Amino acid sequence: MWKLLLVLPTCLIFCSCSNAAQNDRNYSAGKDSQVKSEIFENAPLPDSALVFIKKYFPNVQILEVKAKKSPTVIGTFHEVILADYTEIDFGKLGNWIEVQAPDGIALPSSFFPLSIQSYLREKYNGIGVESIDKSDSGYKLELTNDNKLYFDTKGQFLRMKK
Question: What is the DSSP pairing of strand 27-29 with strand 32-39?
Fold first, then answer.
């Protein structure tokens, strides 16, 4: 009987800790523990982000919008998850930063810079792009064949990594 009195409070503590962790919607994101994410119901997206989604993903609904706040100059940005599980990160002004499709699914390439589109048609025709990441140093593309391509800010090819 005395063992039951010791086990019961321990179980209650574990259950309450588990529920508290599940109910807390703030979390530290990946490498940068300074970035906080909050899920907002009907979080407002900049108009340019909504235009981008409607233009390049016209038949896919938005499942979730997370507003991420950073103490750096990045400020607030948004992560959008679409119904097909494509994830799109938008900067604070609504410009896309990263677009990632589920494994093995190709993204529409019509929003890529024209020079990158031409390069892909010429060198990788028939191979899709699974993700594209835009930064101050250029573009990083991950192809459906697991190769990574790097381009400068003008869309000129730099290198490939397998």
Answer: antiparallel
Q: What are phi and psi of 161, to 5 degrees?
A: -130, 130
Going by C-alpha positions, the residue among 81, 142, 75, 83 that lies closest to residue 112 is 142
CA separation for the pair 119, 139 (Å, rounded) = 13
The amino acid occupying position 142 is E
Tell which residue, 6, 16, 76, has the closest CA to residue 45: 76
Question: What is the predicted pLDDT for the residue at 131?
Answer: 97
DSSP string covering the chain, please? -HHHHHHHHHHHHHHHHHHHHHH---EEETTEEEEEEEE-TTPPPPHHHHHHHHHHSTT--EEEEEEEE-SSTT-EEEEEEETT--EEEE-TTS-EEEEEPPTTPPPP-TTS-HHHHHHHHHHSTT--EEEEEEETTEEEEEETTS-EEEE-TT--EEEEE-
Residue 61 CB coordination number (10 Å): 9
Across 15-19, 39-43, 61-65, 113-117, least confident range: 15-19
Length of the chain: 162
| Predicted TM-score (pTM) of this structure | 0.70
